[in-house]
Design goal:
With 374 residues, the protein is of the alpha/beta class. Helices cover 42% and strands 19% of the residues. The protein has helices spanning 46-51, 61-66, 70-75, 79-83, 95-100, 127-137, 155-177, 196-209, 225-235, 253-261, 271-277, 309-312, 316-324, 328-354, 358-371, and strands spanning 5-12, 15-22, 25-29, 31-34, 57-60, 89-92, 105-107, 112-115, 122-125, 141-143, 185-190, 213-216, 245-247, 266-269, 280-283, 286-289. The strands form 4 sheets. Strands 4-14-13-12-11-10-6-5 form an 8-stranded parallel β-sheet. A 3-stranded antiparallel β-sheet has the order 1-2-3. A 3-stranded antiparallel β-sheet has the order 7-8-9. Strand 13 (245-247), helix 10 (253-261) and strand 14 (266-269) form a beta-alpha-beta unit. The chain is globular, with a radius of gyration of 20 Å.
Length: 374
């Protein structure tokens, strides 16, 4: 396996064109990572995901440790073989899920005690165990365990969670380094709410520890886009230029466009597939709610110019019929269409940066969304 690294090819303003190098292949950035939480991108075959242009998908430590279990996946040959995905996989450490899904949780210096949302059994997740699980899964990018807190929160809560996450970052790093994994990388996670001083302290602490990449966590949890973007504005420049920057759990197409403009390299979000299951399509013409009666006789595709078959080969009328009928195929087509659109958007962003016209692309894309359907 080749080593893990990052090449920054070009900048256009603060937007960055790069490549993350892993033992299982390269990731073109800015990149959107479809979320395959439990080993599946909901509603899609993984060859469909690959065909949209995705270089990497995401799995989740919390969910996979509960079912089927990290040791079980390792015994089956690792996550890549288990799900039949040959490219890179990033695994989130589970901090967000412990915050949002666990029925009972207790955070201590040692780690997080929580009750499974599946069967109520009690578990403990420490920084060391989180890294052990990710090593057993065989993921190519492994995230430190962090404490993610709800929004709104007090300054004291943000500071306490940030400081604990820094201590956990050091333990996560030591645990990752204890088992050499050529071609794989370990990312630290910046916390600190929306407070500039806390975010900068967190970033400085993580840089001192030293990671292959750096993530911005604790955003897109209810603070709104304006506050999220202002937080990125002062956080991203505090991260090393020669390492990838990952904005966790974000977001809408506009979020991806705006965060790319602020120097973010990697994204993930459940929104494309979740929205698809609820009848919503993301397209270059803006959002479409396919439940709307106006699509009942509309034989145009979602976007005849897009290379993704789900966008260009199925009529709005047919998808409307499927969604209104509760047919799984409708949800699958819209999930496929949305992942196709997201990956196409990232391709457009990369091309625009390469050609030195990112600001024009940004303005044109927003104007097209604003004009909406033709």
């Amino acid at each position: 396996m080749t080593g893990f690294g990052f090449t920054l090819h070009k900048t256009d303003g603060r937007a960055r064109l790069g490549t993350v190098h892993t033992g299982r292949g390269d990731i073109r950035t800015p990149a959107f990572m479809p979320v395959g939480t439990v080993g599946t991108v909901k509603g899609l075959y993984l060859d469909q995901v690959k065909a949209t242009g995705a270089d990497i998908i995401l799995g989740n430590t919390y969910h996979l440790m509960l079912r089927p279990g990290a040791e079980e996946v390792a015994a089956l040959g690792g996550l890549h073989r288990f799900i039949r995905w040959e490219g890179p996989i990033l695994t989130d450490s589970g901090g967000f899920q412990i915050m949002s899904l666990s029925k009972i949780r207790k955070i201590t210096e040692r780690g997080a005690m929580f009750q499974s949302h599946i069967d109520g059994r009690k578990h403990e997740l420490t920084p060391e165990r989180a890294m052990d699980i990710q090593r057993l899964l065989g993921s190519d990018i492994q995230m430190q365990l962090d404490q993610c807190i709800e929004f709104p929160h007090t300054d004291k809560q943000a500071m306490k969670a940030m400081e604990l996450s820094l201590r956990w970052a050091e333990r996560s790093r030591l645990a990752f380094q204890a088992h050499p994994q050529p071609g794989r990388g370990n990312f630290g996670i910046v916390q600190g709410g929306t407070d500039e001083a806390l975010r900068l302290r967190s970033a400085a602490g993580l840089r001192q520890i030293g990671f292959e990449g750096y993530a911005i966590g604790g955003l897109a949890v209810g603070e709104g886009q304006a506050l999220m973007l202002s937080t990125i504005d002062f956080t991203a420049p505090a991260l090393p230029e020669d390492r990838p920057r990952y904005l966790m759990g974000v977001g809408t197409p506009d979020d991806l466009l705006e965060a790319s403009a602020r120097g973010i390299d990697m994204f993930d979000c459940v929104m494309p597939t979740r929205s698809g299951r609820h009848g919503q399509a993301f397209t270059r013409l803006g959002k479409m709610n396919l439940r709307n009666a106006k699509y009942a006789t509309d034989m145009r595709p979602l976007d005849e110019e897009h290379p993704c078959p789900a966008l260009s080969q199925y009529s709005r009328a047919y998808i409307h019929h499927l969604i209104r009928s509760g047919e799984l195929l409708g949800m699958m087509l819209l999930s496929w269409a949305n992942i196709g659109y997201y990956e196409g958007l990232m391709q457009g962003i990369r091309k625009a940066i390469a050609e030195g016209r990112f600001e024009g692309f940004r303005a044109e894309t927003k104007e097209q969304w604003k004009r909406g359907e033709s």
